[in-house]
Amino acid sequence: MHYGSRALGLGSILLLAAEAVAAQQQPKDLPEAPTAKQVPAHKHDSALQATVETLGRRSIFFPDLAASPGPLSGKQKLELFAGKSLAPSRFLSSAISSGIGQARDSLSDYGQGMAGYGKRLGSSMASGASTEFFSTFLFASLFRRDPRYFVSLRGGPWHRIGYSVSRLVVARTDAGGEGLNWPGILGPLFAEGLANSYLPVAQQTAGDTFGRYGVRLGFTAGGNVIKEYWPTIFRSLRIARIAPGLGSDSPPAEPWPPATPRFLR
To answer: What is the domain extent for residue 59?
Structure first.
């Protein structure tokens, strides 16, 4: 069976299905939440100010890093789903995980060599796309959750790491509060269940499905930690091509609201 082709085909079907669902909606542009007042520059150290400036730009590498406090419409959640499914971070993580899987000979029915690697890569990309479809678009719209990641900017390393891991179960609502992260909990589970339609038969058991679900949650937690520090990493490495518009000729970004009870609790 051409598992890799079926996996890639599924990803395409999800994109088309999402467009069809969005076409039935008539989302209204939601008003932006009030922008926090700019704090005088002398109250910020240079590192924090640089991070705030970076957060004012949209990241191509991590499209779900929030660049504004306002809520997303259904159409914007659809666009975010498509952006995350094709983001450089998605390709990179799938390429790495496929290489690890091949080295460990997981999904052994796929075989080895470039053909086996291609099937693993296609399967990983399809699973990632289906996870984003359920989490970022479908369930985020149904449960009125904001699927973006909001950097905390507060506390020391342990506090920020704890905050990033807690985003597995806590999410910002479209109203600006906090609630249970149903999209993040249910989305990967539904995606792994759907993966049984293209994975080898030997990996379609309930145990394998929940095992993959647990691994995906673990990778999500690790990804959140990277996102939490990504603006700082970005500024340190000066990776201008990953987030265009940060050159010296660019106008200054609007101040990013820090983690406050109103914007991010």
So the answer is: 3-23+47-237
Residues 6 or more apart whose Cβ sits within 8 Å of residue 1: 200
Q: Each residue of 50-83: pLDDT tens digit?
A: 544 544 456 788 888 888 888 899 999 999 999 8
74/144 Cα distance (integer angstroms): 9
Q: Is 249 exposed, middle or buried (0-12, 13-18, 19+ CB in 10 A)?
A: exposed
**Contact in structure between 52 and 44 (CB atoms under 8 Å):** yes
The verdict on residue 248 lying in a domain is no
Residues 6+ apart with CB under 8 A from 171: 145, 146, 147, 178, 179, 180, 181, 182, 183, 184
Which residues, listed in sequence order, are joined to residue 226 by a DSSP beta bridge? none
Q: Under DSSP, is residue 235 helix (H, G, I), strand (E, B) or coil?
A: helix
Is 60 within 8 Å of 87 (Cβ atoms)?
Answer: yes
- Amino acid 176 reads G
**Is this prediction's pTM over 0.85?**
no
Residue 192 · residue 127 · CB < 8 Å = yes
Task: Return the residue matching tokens 């009030």.
Answer: 34
pLDDT tens-digit map of 12-21: 455 454 444 4
Q: In the chain, how many domains are there?
A: 1
Is 247 domain-assigned? no
